[in-house]
Design brief:
With 314 residues, this protein is α/β, with parallel strands linked by helices. It has helices spanning 14-24, 43-56, 80-83, 105-115, 130-138, 168-172, 174-181, 192-195, 202-210, 214-234, 244-251, 298-309; strands spanning 4-10, 29-36, 64-66, 121-125, 146-152, 187-190, 256-261, 263-265, 276-278, 290-296. Strands 3-2-1-4-5-6-10-7 form an 8-stranded mixed beta sheet, with helices on both faces. Helix 1 (14-24) packs parallel to helix 2 and helix 1 (14-24) packs parallel to helix 11 (244-251). The structure holds alpha-D-ribofuranose and calcium ion (CA).
């Protein structure tokens, strides 16, 4: 089996952290590097957190890069109210010792795509799309070399989570999102419509603790912290574990359903800026630029997570 080469672009974020762990636990995936972007928390913290996660997984060899520290066209909006002041609240882990790479994240993305054979590298953005859009703008030649972009972001039937209309990753940098959705790169979109069906549970957090490993304890602590916001807001029994759905789709696409549709990013709306206008019923006649997911086998998803995270032992 040839492992799928990916780059995770991320704003850790407890759910980002679980996505990184899932990728590191899966031999089907070759994680070429982690590129950090400002989002849930400012860039210095996302860079810190990504390295904490790599060291927790026993993988200080994974190159971690610092990327863009603000959106392309508006001030940064962060989400400490969800993720805590560090962005990784809920588990007490040591400060990272592994280095940050000297290259800028955008240069790493460009250089990797130019070096690797065309169509062999998948980008997995699970935060605002600033780094990805900046790379595409600086090096348009990379677009046809990208195998696929598998991103967590957007919403349609589930509507917004940071505004009534917009999901956080898209809302933080709508101009970047518009550029990515218009780039003509094969695109899989994991929206809130899916992630809000992938809710953590007390039983699953108990299963994580029962692993008896540092990873299991950290994931349980992160989710216990992370879920308080969504449980209070939505009155749900758990929290949506958003970002690992992207990696799970790569590993087990049969767990998900979706359709090829047109998705545009609203940039002008007074109340709808950052909305993903998803033509689920294909009424617009606009080009189908995204495989937009709509359903998930949540039991299968969490079973996959448990089986893979159990592999990460000291
Ligand atoms: O709206 C959910 C997304 O915003 C997730 O990627 C979460 O980590 C935050 O970045
Ligand atoms: Ca994220």
């Amino acid at each position: 089996m040839t492992a799928r080469k990916i780059i995770i672009d991320t704003d850790p974020g407890q759910d980002d952290a679980v996505a990184i762990l899932l990728a590191l636990a899966s031999p089907e995936i070759a994680l070429l590097g982690i590129t950090c972007v400002a989002g849930n928390v400012p860039l210095p913290l996302t860079v810190r957190n990504a390295r904490i996660v790599c060291e927790l997984a026993g993988r200080p060899d994974i190159p971690v890069f610092a990327g863009c520290d603000r959106p392309v066209a508006q001030p940064l909006v962060t989400a400490e109210h969800v993720h805590g002041n560090t962005g990784l609240d809920g588990a007490d882990l040591p400060e990272p010792m592994m280095p940050v790479q000297a290259a800028h994240a955008v240069d790493f993305i460009i250089d990797t795509l130019r070096r690797e054979p065309p169509g062999t590298v998948t980008l997995c953005p699970i935060g605002p799309l600033t780094n990805i859009a900046t790379a595409l703008a600086r090096a348009p030649d990379i677009a046809p070399r990208i195998a696929r972009i598998v991103l967590m972001g957007g919403a349609y039937f589930e509507v917004g989570n940071i505004t009534p209309a917009a999901e956080f990753n898209i809302f933080v940098d709508p101009e970047a999102a518009a550029a990515v959705f218009a780039a003509g790169v094969p695109l899989t979109v994991v929206p809130l419509d899916v992630t809000h069906k992938a809710l953590t549970s007390a039983a699953w957090l108990g299963a994580m603790r029962s692993l008896g490993t540092p990873v299991g304890r950290a994931v349980a602590g992160w989710c216990n912290f992370f879920e308080r916001f969504d449980k209070e807001k939505y009155g749900s029994q758990g929290a949506p574990l958003h970002d690992p759905c992207t990696i799970a789709w790569l590993l087990a696409p049969h767990l998900f359903t979706g359709r090829e549709i047109n998705v545009e990013i609203e940039l002008q709306g007074t109340f709808t800026r950052g909305m993903t206008v998803a033509d689920w019923w294909r009424v617009s006649g606009r080009p189908r630029n995204a495989f937009f997911l709509g359903g998930v086998d949540a039991q299968g998803y969490f079973a996959l997570l448990t089986e893979r995270l159990a592999r990460l032992v000291p």
